[in-house]
Amino acid sequence: MALPEWDGELTSVRHDPETGAWFVIGVHSTRLGPASGGTRAMVYPSVDDAVADARRLAGAMTLKMAAAGLPMGGGKSVIALPAPRAELDDATWRRILGLHAANLNLLGGNYTTGPDVGTCSADMDVLRTLTPHVFGRSAAAGGPGSSGPMTALGVFAAVEAGVAEAGFDGVDGLRVLVQGLGAVGADVARLAAAAGAKLIVTDVDPARCAALAEELGAEVIDTGAVLTRECDVLVPCATGGLVTAEVAGTLPCAVLAGAANNLLADPYAAEVLRRRGVVHAPDFVANSGGAIHLVGREVLGWDADAVADRTRAIRDTLAGIFDDARTHGITTVAAAERRAAATLEGAL
User: Fold this and answer.
1) SS3 of 306, please?
2) Which entry of 8, 117, 124, 201 is 20 to 30 Å from 38 by CA?
3) What is the band of 239 on the pLDDT scale with cuts at 50, 70, 90?
4) Residues pairing with 12 in the sheet
């Protein structure tokens, strides 16, 4: 394995011959405090891909924490599974969680993890019996519960901010396309429907689409049509890398705001969106409600109302970012990164 240069602080890689799993922890920055970021468990094409993903996600977490004004650094765990989790038996998964806990302990508190794609609060409950370096336990186990609802609330606040920036008078009557109907995407869809949106949904799981169609009267489209279906607001809530510069040049929406991390596949895509007048809410701001929930409840001692208020304030944060981008003729990503950089520099 050849590790390319990276501006982060630490990359830990471990292989377990018994299960075939690879464990990667990327600590990008501890400037604002101990690094924090979820554990992603999925099948990767190669261990190099897993390392690259952990590093990208860790860097995004640094920006997320700084932009949200939270006293934590950025990190991420990736467990490259030997097979889809649904195919792993309980003993194998328990061993994987045990090794992950051991890796967390080796870092001595410099990195704390929580749920992400492929893991959940129940997994955090198990990890917490093996290591103290865990956020996001279930309420039954003494934790604050899933971060999904607050992530969704923050994404919808980003949608509202983007809609206002685009000149619309609220979400009512707009065509809102939600891609990915997991815990976050489904809740975003419900919030959009409650606000009067004409809801369009898509997911790789037809059952999820059918359930939302029945519950909310949503229109269901094929996953392959997500980048070509005309809509007012596109809300990607699956995995990242969806929007290349080429895709940005033809994306048929006025607002792009979603939960997916690292949504843009290359930096130039943000400039293409800017030139076309597509309002883009940077993902590390739009999806920061989950971090606000976990850090607010477990580190800062906020109650549920305080967390919700801080999460809704993502709308105000983005309004400032949009204004900065307009004033200086830069992308919203550049404006958001400037805000995060100022916070990080202030910690020196």
Assistant:
1) helix
2) 201
3) confident
4) 25
Give me the catalytic one of 31, 56, 76, 297.
76
Query: What mean pLDDT is predicted for residues 161-177?
Result: 98
**Strand ranges inside 69-167, DSSP E:** 73-80, 111-112
Task: Classify 103 as helix, strand or coil.
Answer: helix
| CB proximity list for 83: less than 8 A, separation 6 or greater | 43
283-333 pLDDT per residue, tens: 999 999 999 999 999 999 999 999 999 999 999 999 999 999 999 999 999
Q: CA 41, 135, 261: angle at the middle one, nearest 5?
A: 50
Domain ranges of the chain: 10-61+72-141, 148-287+316-343
Report residue 27: phi and psi, to 5°: -105, 105
* Section 211-224 average pLDDT: 95
The CATH fold assigned to 148-287+316-343 is Rossmann fold (3.40.50)
> Do 10-61+72-141 and 148-287+316-343 share a fold?
yes
Nearest-angstrom CA–CA distance, 165 and 319? 7
The residues with which 79 forms a beta bridge, in sequence order, are: 23, 41
Are the beta carbons of 12 and 107 closer than 8 angstroms? yes
Encoding tokens for residue 75? 């990190």
User: Which stretch of DSSP H or E encloses residue 279?
Assistant: strand 279-280
pLDDT digits (tens, 9 = 90+) for 52-91: 999 999 999 999 999 999 999 999 999 999 999 999 999 9
Q: How far is CA 265 from CA 5, 76, 270, in A?
A: 19, 19, 10
Catalytic, 64? Answer no
Q: How far apart are CA 205 and CA 316, in angstroms?
A: 34
| Residue pair 134/124 in contact by the 8 Å Cβ criterion | yes
* Amino acid letter, 82: P
Is the confidence at residue 36, as pLDDT, over 60? Answer: yes
DSSP 11: E
* Residue type at position 278: V
